[in-house]
Design brief:
Helix content is 31%, strand content 17%. It is an alpha+beta fold. The protein has one domain.
Length: 214
């Protein structure tokens, strides 16, 4: 997990079970000194806490593959099926990027030995990158039922290490306003992210991890 997240959690230890939202007008990328996506170009965070950033551009051929994958994955024109297609697209994008910049060996979850390792990504890296990948899909008009939301975090310090501050990307469902957590951190690089209702999402223990979207 990101050291800055830990510091924030320690400072607010009395508020166990908190949800952290960026204040209105506060940009997630600026908070973590990350570069936002532009078109189909992303700056991929790695080494924990966006300590390192590597630029990557999804080519027109890449986007054609993503569009084909999403069309093949969807069974119906519904928000639920769009989320399913998005999960497969994000997994594909992670694999594509990982092969290119060396993060394909990223291990799942929290690994203290990974801090500073350019092949590894913590929850801030993953939440930021997933937000960028979702934004690429949105920029390419591949999202109909959802809009990319701001990352947010939860913590429950009463659980100790298992309850440290954890960030996730989000999608907002256009028709209902339901917010969905899109979490790529809990599984290895290239695995489909978990996609769950934001109010139900929280990483408490290995036994309670949400499953990858299938």
């Amino acid at each position: 997990m990101l050291k800055r997240s830990v510091w924030l959690g320690a400072a607010l230890a009395a508020l166990a079970g908190c949800t952290y939202e960026h204040a209105p007008g506060v940009d997630h990328y600026k908070v973590f000194a990350a570069t936002p996506p532009h078109g189909t170009t992303v700056s991929v965070c790695h080494a924990y806490g966006c300590r390192e950033q590597t630029k990557f551009t999804f080519t027109s051929a890449d986007m054609a593959e993503i569009k084909k994958l999403m069309a093949k994955t969807k069974k119906a024109d519904t928000p639920a099926e769009e989320r399913r297609a998005v999960a497969y697209a994000v997994g594909w994008m992670e694999r594509r990027v990982g092969d290119a910049i060396g993060t394909k060996a990223d291990r799942e979850g929290m690994d203290f030995s990974g801090s500073g390792d350019p092949t590894q990504q913590d929850c801030v890296d993953e939440a930021t990158n997933t937000t960028s990948y979702l934004t690429v899909l949105q920029n390419e008009q591949l999202l109909k039922h959802h809009t990319v939301g701001k990352p947010f975090a939860k913590e429950n310090l009463l659980r100790g290490i298992a309850g440290w501050t954890h960030w996730t990307a989000t999608l907002n469902e256009n028709g209902t306003g339901q917010r969905w957590a899109v979490d790529s951190w809990i599984y290895a690089n290239g695995e489909n992210p978990a996609v769950v209702e934001a109010e139900k999402w929280y990483i408490a223990s290995l036994a309670e991890l949400p499953k990858p979207m299938r």
